Amino acid sequence: MNILGISAYYHDSATALVRDGQILAAVQEERFTRKKHDARFPINGIEYCLSTAQIDLKHLDYIVFYEKPLITFERLLETYIAYAPQGFRSFIAAMSVWLQEKLYLKTVLKKQLAKLGNCKTKDLPPLLFAEHHQSHAASAFFPSPFQNAAVLCLDAVGEWATTSLWLGEGNQLTPIWEIDFPHSLGMLYSAFTYYTGFRVNSGEYKLMGLAPYGEPKYVDVILNNLLDLKSDGTFRLNMDYFNYATGLTMTNSKFDRLLGSPPRKPESKITQREMDIAASIQKVTEEVVLRLSRTARKDTGSDNLCLAGGVALNCVANGRILREGEFKDIWIQPAAGDAGGALGAALATWYQYLDNPRQVSGSDAMQGSYLGPHFKDEEIRQYLDDVRANYQHLDDEQLMPQLAEILAKGNVVGWFQGRMEFGPRALGGRSIIGDPRNVKMQSVMNLKIKYRESFRPFAPSVLAERVSDYFAIDRASPYMLLVAPVQKELHLSMTEEQQQLFGIEKLNVPRSQIPAITHVDYSARIQTVHPKTNPRYYELIRQFEAKTGCGILVNTSFNVRGEPIVCTPEDAYRCFMRTEMDYLVLENYLLAKSEQPQWQKDESWKQEFELD
């Protein structure tokens, strides 16, 4: 039985295909269209999933959408009525979109699918609609390694729910309680993302990365004015300070007066004040999530926790749950945001709607999240010949030691192999990699490769069996969703002068023997690499360890600022040629920048994405 899950029309459109409970393929539409967070109908993703399964649309048994638009419309109407006459301009803007398209989403979807399948709408498979947080919960629990778990979903908003707790048992999810809009931890964090001058729905990572440079001076301001936080983690927001319920911005003038100034203009200088604000909202978020996790343990009685929703991508908060919470183990859906809803909707259909049994094997079912396209040797060769690229073709026995030597010399390498990752993290399928021991690697990658803010940290990819040698963590973290401290014996002592530095001045002070992946608070966002799920990446790190004694590589996503992660060999070569990467690996093809033909430079993309 083939079930296709779809998320679309809000942000991060995605598609997933499940056959008899097994995940065959999952991908975000942005990777094909090259438009970051693309919300359009995922025609390319559907075609990819069908191709991977070697079926046509008519062979699908069910198509399921990840939320129920009519309930969302109800929430919008009730919210505008509650705040009337405020928000009239926003109401008109929203209603024009809904009355033209979203209110008739079932019809729109059927027309799009019929066009794609070259058939009539009456000949389509049954079209189902899951609830938004049900899709999140299903994406978190059903692929997890647990037979029984508390499932906590935290995001901006679904239909009504912004935070929900479920009990996962076998093939069923039972809702326990929820917090409804407008009281939303995701919206609160996004409000501060907006206020500090970053883009909502994409800049939250920046806010989290900026936090360690600041001091949490505004925690009391937030807790005394913006957030009524209870001991069990439940909360209510003071909507007098926010504009997102009915307005065109996240915060309002009263919020500005509370914090002392208007929002920072995008691309303007980041000051110590923004760093302190980031530190404050991050600390508050961690406290809310930690309290909620303790309540989840109490209310479900389960020893295991699963997480999904956009807030579950806050890996600093996840790390605190692991270290300070009351669960024996936690598992986080790698595509925790709306993209993962496509997968959750398909899995909810298979297990809950159709009541199929679920078997747990002791490891998760995400296959390392390598669920996207891969490319054959002849496809890569054909493209490289078409652009007259100079390359070597090497088998792995030749390539891996040579690449370890290249990395040890301080070169930055584009690494493209296997199936593309599903979710926002590059996990060794579409990555840019480097030497973590190099004190200049972070600034070089940020400013010359990624073209992004210098303060943003990079993650370590570490051999799974060596993780505890470098970091204070005792378990796998394959999806880069847990932050843990660097082991103290690897710390470097600081001079008295260095200890007095504050803010962005901290950036250039090496903190450990692996400085390129050690954040200013001595933490790191960890990816453990396993031979079962990514044998080639594992072997590369093993060869690097044999060469240098270090079982870690710097890993960041293979893209530049404002662009999605690369999907095809063409995407990878284009990114390689217009940045200052030194080498590119496309499966078994090795390319040196110095040996490539002249590239026709086009800098217009920088302006296009400069406000991302």
Automatic annotation (TrEMBL):
Kindly name one Pfam family recorded for this protein: Carbam_trans_C
Top-level taxon of the source organism: Bacteria
Question: What taxonomic classification does the UniProt entry list for its organism?
Answer: Bacteria, Bacillati, Cyanobacteriota, Cyanophyceae, Spirulinales
User: The Carbamoyltransferase C-terminal domain covers which part of the protein?
Assistant: 404-593
Q: Which GO terms describe its molecular function?
A: catalytic activity
The family line of this record is: Belongs to the NodU/CmcH family.
Sorted alphabetically, which Gene3D superfamilies does this protein's record hold?
3.30.420.40, Carbamoyltransferase, C-terminal domain
Name of protein = Carbamoyltransferase
- UniProt domain Carbamoyltransferase: residue ranges: 3-347
